[in-house]
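Appendix C reproduces, verbatim, an entry submitted by the partner laboratory led by Prof. M.T., so that reviewers can inspect both the input and the predicted structure.
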Amino acid sequence: MKIRHLTAVGIALFGATFSAASWAQDTAPAATVGGTDHSKFVGTFGIGFMGIQTIGLTDAAGTPDPVTAPVIGGRYWLDSGMGIDAGLGLAFGTGSVEVANTSVDDPQPAALILHGGLPLALADTQYFVFELVPELNIGFAGNTEEGVGGNTIFRGFHLDLGARAGAEVHFGFIDIPQLSLQAGIGLALSYDSTSVEVEATNTTTSSSIMRFGTNVGNDPWDIFTSSITALYYFGG
């Protein structure tokens, strides 16, 4: 009698346990099939637009004449938490002015910008990655104007050292997980210097300025040129 009673109790407990397990399985959130969009591109390269950088220059009168260049580069995720960014920006140009049927060269400034970063993925969901990106930007610019008795040489230098925090959003929700947009705000130490060397008088005028603060920009549209970048990943 006792054996039958214990058996009945055991069957009842087993049934309750089985029912609870089935209920938990039915109500648990479904696992992400194939991982998050971010995880699909670990160990692959992405290329794209990494923002616009500006290098200060001045003309012979000391009036600011800055040079801007878009930075094109790539990102490689070493693992799910850390990657490497590298980019290059170039700006070159030539010009001429015609006066009294005579063409006179109008030299345009040239610029070179190097970008490096170390993106850190702190958290991610299906389409979203929260990132902290320590980064470095180094830029050089120059121009030369011919004159009587010698040339006038213009030089500019720009340095950024800081970090940005923001989000990278993959477009997997429209079946393009390879495409992502990244936006954020940053805090950086920046240094700019300009110089004008006049060979005819053997004189050089230079100036420099150092700043520390956020680097979203002064104008509303700066968020699109300075804070938003686009990447396209290969593989995955």
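The helical segments are 2-27, 37-40, 222-225. Additional entries are available on request from the coordinating office.
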